[in-house]
Amino acid sequence: MNLSPSMLAVIAILGLLGVGFYALLASRNLIKVIVGLQILVKGSMLAFVLAGRLVGNVTLGQSLALTVIVVDTIVAVIGLAISVQIRRHFGTLDVKALTTLRR
Amino acid sequence: MMYLLIVAGLLVCAIQAVRSARLLSSALWLAGASALTALFMYLLGAPEVAVIELSVGAGLVTVLFVFAINIAGEEEGLSGSPLPAPLTIALILIVVVSIGWLALPALNIELPMLIPMNLSSILWGSRAIDVLLQIVLIFAGTLGMLGMLGESKPAKPHHKEAQE
């Protein structure tokens, strides 16, 4: 079976999205959740570049992927800082332990 | 063949990053996934963003993860999912199948020839406002991180001083 590069790219994108969603839904560790978010965003970044390449304007896809990289990095930075503070205040990184807003 | 190897390595790195029990090895697998994503983007004809992804995704973000894991520390016994397993799998299948359905037309397209264009002309010509917003976002993120990582000072008992 001969797989074209675009088909392989779509497989990679879907795989990354699936793994990222799994990490978001099934992880209890806050830092693991951020790892899942990073994987999810890598899939979307690859999708932007592939879409740009398929329509023949890869530069536009690149510029959008660049925006995604910037936003993703800031989300990771803020998320990790929040995780560190949660660990300091609650003593755990467990998502289930963060129930102080629940009555 | 090279594309196939990269995709296989990328998926293995991503799965290991999620499955790995230790957070540190999880961060390292994530760096591997980042590097392979950058290689894939380079092969798809996006060298500029591939270099940025390699330096930011595999470099800076990994350093940040190692830093945060060092401060927060590893935590054992956080296995198990907050959601029931069938619900998790059903949600993931719904998302992946619907996105795959949208991406079906792309499967049979051969990659067209690359037209050389200047990235900076797109960034500063068509998307100048976006770039300025990104710069503001970077500053906001840095300030936010500094504010949150700083040690919180104990609150001063103002009311006692006022009573005295």
From TrEMBL, chain A:
Main location: membrane
Record flagged with keyword Phosphoprotein: no
Keyword Translocase: yes
EC numbers, comma separated: 7.1.1.-
Subcellular locations according to the entry: Cell membrane; Membrane
Catalytic activity: a quinone + NADH + 5 H(+)(in) = a quinol + NAD(+) + 4 H(+)(out)
Keywords carried by this UniProt record: Cell membrane, Membrane, NAD, Quinone, Translocase, Transmembrane, Transmembrane helix, Transport, Ubiquinone
Record-linked HAMAP family: NDH1_NuoK
Protein name stated in the entry: NADH-quinone oxidoreductase subunit K
Source organism of this protein record: Levilinea saccharolytica
